Structure formats: structure tokens, C-alpha cells
């Protein structure tokens, strides 16, 4: 009876170990905040959730699996034979205690467990060293990008109050040569002393990449760079010529080239119109006039569109100065509606973090 009770208890525990990660792993991160033992749960069952997410992307080497099974079987047979022989040789034949098969099984499983533990330890050490030496951020907060966008919103609205319109996405001289970006035109109206100091050093009649501007545009702007951005495939702080890069771009339909837009021109409503957003690839210097992109390409869908290092979407600045996290799975027609300032659409994107 005791053995049957122990077996039922063990079966129930195993069932809970399988079902609990599946149920809680399917919850949203917000919902799981209410689970009081979330950290303990992740430590115990996080590996099961991870396997469930990546199993469809895994490919199995069945020859390798078969080789491993055959190797374990041969190890068990050889170990059992050797231990029986050793016991027979080391004791009195009449009183020798026979080597049991259960002892062989326990020994083989111990060896397999130690092998797995050693492999896991190698992975832990490798990842720890990588995190300590890599430029990828170990921890970052999504609030950094939202804060950057709100600061840019203040600068853009200050520009509007003083100049009567938002800055154009790019400016050109009479010959059609590009001069400056919307970031450059926004700088004098930002709150930071570095912003105003750099703005005073820029000649708007000379191109941004003129040799006289070299030192100015080599300066990185904290509010134009997102600390969470990381890419092993391309530079994220400075380009090959030393110019400081930007991690944001303007919406070309609102702040396109030669397009200084007024609030009165945004008939769809400032809260329904996107102005600036995160980018996570193909970074350009903040002084480059071609610092705008098309929202209609989607979010995290194209390296030439908008995207972020965060999972699930990206942050955008609305024309009313608020910042919102928008899901990459948002309806494309709804996204297009918020990309135009005067398209006649009354739709807005609900949800997300609006601040």
C-alpha cells in the first residue's frame, strides 16, 4: 500500500511539473506578475518553457541520437560484466556477493547525469563570460526609449511654437543637395546644454558632412541613442567615418523632405498621428538628412522600416507629444491610418503604453 501511495504521489508531482509550466508559460508577462513565486517558477521550469518555444526550430541528428543510445547500452553491458568479474576475483567464491543489475543501472545513470551536468556547466560558464565581455546589454529598461521620445516631443513642439511648424524631415539647398536632418533643426529647442552648444556650432547653409562640421556630428546625443540597441552585424554608436548614429527615424509621411508641417495640418488629430519611432537596423548619423522611414513597411518587418530591440513591437512618438509602445502584430491598415496626418481616418491604435 505504501509503495502504491508513493507511486501515485510521484505521478501527481510529475504531472504538475509538466502542466504548471504549460499553463503559466502561456500567460502574458503582465499576468504572471501576480504569480508570487514567479522567480522560483522560472528557475525550476524555465527550461521547459524555452524548449516549448524553440522545439519547432530544432533539427535532430538521428544518427547522433542512435549512436548515443548504443554507446550507453555498450557502457552498461561492459560495466556490468566487468563488475561481476571484479567481484568474483576479489572475494571468496563461496561467499562472493553477486553484482546486481540495479547497481549497474544506477551507476550508468549517474554517469549520464554527470555528463549532462558538465555540459550544462560549460554552457553556463560560456554564456556568463559572453555576457561579461559582450557589448550587448545584460539588462535594460524599455522606459529609456520612451523617455527619449518624450524629450524629442518637447523639442519638436518647442520648434513648432517658435517657428510656427514642426521641422522638415530634411532640408536642401537651391541645387537640391541635402543639407540637414530634422534632428539638427530640433537641437536648438532641446533642454540639454550639449544640444544647444552643438546647435550653435552648426551652419545651416553648409551640408552636415562638410569638413567644418566634422567634430560636431561626431558627438553622440544621449537622447538620440537607445542603450538597449545592439547588433553584432553593424555598428550602432558610430559609422565607419566616425559620425555618431541615431536610433530613431521620422515618419516620412509627417516629417518628409521639404515638409514643415503645422499642427493645423494634422486633421486626423495629433493623438492619431505618428511622428518618430524606434529603429533597430540600417542606422544613419543623426545629422544625415535622410533620417526618415515609412511606417507602412510595418514594425520589425524590414531593416529599412521601424523596429526595436524589444520583443513584440516598438515605441513611437505621437504628434501630441505622447509616446506609445505599438505591437508588431497591429493591423496593417490601422498602422497605415496612424501614419498619415490628414488621410481622413479616425482610427487610432488602442492599448500599449501611452505616456
Structure commentary:
With 355 residues, the protein is α+β, with helices and mostly antiparallel strands. Among the domains are: 41 residues; 195 residues, no CATH class. The chain is 43% helix and 9% strand. It contains ten helices and nine strands. The strands form three sheets. A five-stranded mixed sheet has the order 7-4-5-8-9. Strands 1-2 form a two-stranded antiparallel ribbon. Strands 3-6 form a two-stranded antiparallel sheet. A hairpin with a 5-residue loop joins β1 and β2. α1 packs across α3 and α4 crosses α5. The chain is elongated, with a radius of gyration of 31 Å. The termini are far apart.
Write a short abstract of this structure:
The protein has 355 residues and is an alpha+beta fold.
The parts where pLDDT drops under 50 for at least 5 residues are 24-35, 351-355
Radius of gyration: 31 Å
Q: How large is the share of residues in beta strands?
A: 5-15%
The ordered string of helix (H) and strand (E) elements is: HHHHHHEEHHHEEEEEEEH
What would you call the structural class? alpha+beta
Helix fraction, binned, reads: 40-55%
| Main sheet properties | 5 strands, mixed
Strand segment tally: 9
- Give the strand line-up of the largest sheet: 7-4-5-8-9
Q: Give the overall pLDDT as a whole number.
A: 80
Amino acid at each position: 500500500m505504501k509503495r502504491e501511495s508513493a507511486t501515485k504521489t510521484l505521478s501527481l508531482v510529475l504531472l504538475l511539473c509538466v502542466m504548471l509550466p504549460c499553463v503559466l508559460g502561456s500567460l502574458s508577462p503582465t499576468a504572471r506578475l501576480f504569480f508570487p513565486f514567479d522567480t522560483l517558477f522560472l528557475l525550476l521550469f524555465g527550461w521547459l518553457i524555452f524548449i516549448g518555444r524553440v522545439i519547432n526550430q530544432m533539427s535532430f541528428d538521428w544518427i547522433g541520437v542512435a549512436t548515443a543510445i548504443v554507446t550507453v547500452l555498450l557502457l552498461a553491458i561492459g560495466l556490468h560484466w566487468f563488475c561481476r568479474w571484479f567481484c568474483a576475483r576479489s572475494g571468496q567464491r563461496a561467499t562472493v556477493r553477486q553484482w546486481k543489475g540495479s547497481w549497474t543501472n544506477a551507476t550508468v545513470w549517474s554517469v549520464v547525469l554527470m555528463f549532462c551536468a558538465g555540459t550544462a556547466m560549460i554552457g553556463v560558464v560560456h554564456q556568463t563570460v559572453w555576457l561579461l565581455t559582450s557589448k550587448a546589454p545584460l539588462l535594460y529598461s524599455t522606459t529609456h526609449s520612451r523617455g527619449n521620445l518624450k524629450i524629442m516631443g518637447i523639442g519638436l513642439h518647442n520648434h513648432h511654437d517658435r517657428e510656427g511648424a514642426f521641422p522638415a524631415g530634411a532640408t536642401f539647398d537651391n541645387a537640391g543637395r541635402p543639407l540637414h536632418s530634422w534632428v539638427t533643426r530640433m537641437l536648438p529647442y532641446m533642454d540639454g546644454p550639449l544640444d544647444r552648444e552643438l546647435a550653435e556650432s552648426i551652419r545651416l547653409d553648409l551640408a552636415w558632412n562638410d569638413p567644418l562640421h566634422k567634430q560636431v556630428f561626431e558627438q553622440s546625443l544621449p537622447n538620440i541613442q537607445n542603450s538597449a540597441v545592439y547588433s553584432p552585424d553593424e555598428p550602432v554608436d558610430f559609422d565607419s567615418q566616425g559620425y555618431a548614429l541615431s536610433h530613431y527615424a521620422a515618419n516620412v509621411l509627417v516629417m518628409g523632405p521639404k515638409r514643415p508641417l503645422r499642427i493645423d495640418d494634422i486633421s486626423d488629430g495629433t493623438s492619431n498621428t505618428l511622428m518618430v519611432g524606434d529603429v533597430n537596423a540600417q542606422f544613419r548619423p543623426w545629422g544625415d538628412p535622410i533620417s526618415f522611414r515609412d511606417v507602412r513597411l510595418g514594425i520589425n518587418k524590414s531593416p529599412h522600416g521601424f523596429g526595436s530591440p524589444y520583443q513584440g513591437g516598438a515605441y513611437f512618438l505621437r504628434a501630441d507629444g505622447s509616446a506609445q509602445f505599438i505591437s508588431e502584430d497591429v493591423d496593417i491598415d490601422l498602422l497605415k491610418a496612424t501614419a498619415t496626418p490628414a488621410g481622413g481616418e479616425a482610427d487610432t491604435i488602442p492599448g500599449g503604453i501611452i505616456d
